[in-house]
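[[Local backbone shapes]]
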Amino acid sequence: MGLKDFAFFRGLNKTGAFARLSEFTVKECVLACVLEDFDNESFVVENHQDKCVTYSNSENLIFVLVEKNRAVLIEINKAVKEIKHLNTIVILIEQEVNVEMPKNYYCLTVPDIIAGAVKRNITTRNLFLSFLKGLFDYPFP
């Protein structure tokens, strides 16, 4: 199953679908992978022209890329160097990276995100985590 198989994702590309999932449980699960202590409700989700998703609050700006896009990653890298007043984090979801990642850059897989759910006591049989598995072509019951 994939993106086209879910009515929940109808009309969306992969980034748009991930942004929609982030409005629910998925944001908290991803944040649990990169932050120790946080208030999930303080983070705002933004979809930037279906190219990048951000989670932000008064202290953090987290860029999430779910599709390979070198031009967007270059722009994010430039922004990260300029932003001094926020903790910046870059997350690449389900992307193989063959180079050493700078500090505060993370490559996460769906199993990593599900492990984040466990850290926050969110059931792994959550509907939105099932949709996440489907989005990235992981098998689910």
Q: What stands out?
A: Helices lie at 14-22, 25-34, 70-82, 110-119, 127-135. The chain has a mean pLDDT of 91. The two ends are 12 Å apart (CA to CA).
